[in-house]
Write a structure and sequence with these properties.
The complex is a heterodimer of chains A (114) and B (115). Chain A is mostly beta strands and 114 residues long. Chain A contains no helices and twelve strands. Chain A has strands at residues 3-5, 10-14, 19-21, 24-26, 32-38, 44-50, 56-58, 64-68, 73-78, 87-94, 102-104, 108-113. In chain A, strand 10 (87-94) and strand 11 (102-104) form a beta hairpin. Chain A is globular and about 45 Å long. By secondary structure, chain B is an all-beta fold. The radius of gyration of chain B is 13 Å and the shape is globular. The chains are: A mainly beta (114), B mainly beta (115). The A-B interface holds A 4, 32, 34, 36, 41-46, 49, 51-52, 90, 92, 94, 96, 98-107 and B 4, 6, 31, 33, 35, 40-45, 48, 55-56, 58, 91, 93, 95, 97, 100-109, 111.
């Protein structure tokens, strides 16, 4: 069965520092991969997605992610974090063969220190 | 494009009561999904619709849960005889089945508290 692991439950970074959030997936075929961000009490906003092609994908708000098939990873990065980036980040894998339901990780909570 | 909307945003109910949530997807989207998210967890799939047909249901969707999408537009999720364990955020998402990979767009969620 598909699964997503986000090893870091909580990360704290200083404003202006770089950020990397880890995501590992388990899936038999080429996955569809997504990163979403959730602010407190809100729904999920799509940051970026990977379907195929170039393994480095750009998203909104200056985020990017790199798909590494050999490591089954899809890590999210940002070169310089802003205080407004503080939120919960979820990695998800989609599978068309199972009705396109998404499988989410447990999330990484990001705190940004001024 | 007004996005996915959900109503109500918050619901407090007493154990044993029935509750109903509504989701309005992005207008041209033919797929609609319900997820449940508990504190500290990622969303978990409950069920999804292709137009008005409910095509898949998770084991999480007990007999007390029922979802409908009668005209292939908005959807409702009803929970009968609520239990404290039903307290969660219920998220709706929609997508367009274009024959390839799809992106799901999420609504703001309905937060349910069962006392």
């Amino acid at each position: 069965a598909q699964s997503v692991t986000q090893p870091d439950i909580h990360i704290t970074v200083s404003e202006g520092a770089s950020l990397e959030l880890r995501c590992n997936y388990s899936y038999g075929a080429t996955p569809y991969l997504f990163w979403y961000v959730q602010s407190p009490g809100q729904g999920l906003q799509l940051l970026l997605k990977y379907f195929s092609g170039d393994t480095l994908v750009q998203g909104i708000k200056g985020f990017e992610a790199e798909f590494k098939r050999s490591q089954s990873s899809f890590n999210l990065r940002k070169p310089s974090v802003h205080w407004s980036d503080a939120a919960e980040y979820f990695c998800a894998v989609g599978d068309r063969n199972t009705g396109n339901q998404f499988y989410f990780g447990t999330g990484t909570s990001l705190t940004v220190i001024p | 494009d007004t996005g996915v909307s959900q109503d109500p945003r918050h619901k407090i109910t007493k154990r044993g009561q029935n509750v109903t949530f509504r989701c309005d997807p992005i207008s041209e989207h033919n797929r609609l999904y319900w997820y449940r998210q508990t504190l500290g967890q990622g969303p978990e799939f409950l069920t999804y619709f292709q137009n008005e047909a409910q095509l898949e249901k998770s084991r999480l969707l007990s007999d007390r849960f029922s979802a409908e999408r009668p005209k292939g537009s908005f959807s409702t999720l009803e929970i009968q005889r609520t239990e404290q364990g039903d307290s969660a955020m219920y998220l709706c998402a929609s997508s367009l089945d274009g024959g390839g990979p799809e992106t799901q767009y999420f609504g703001p969620g309905t937060r349910l508290l069962v006392l």
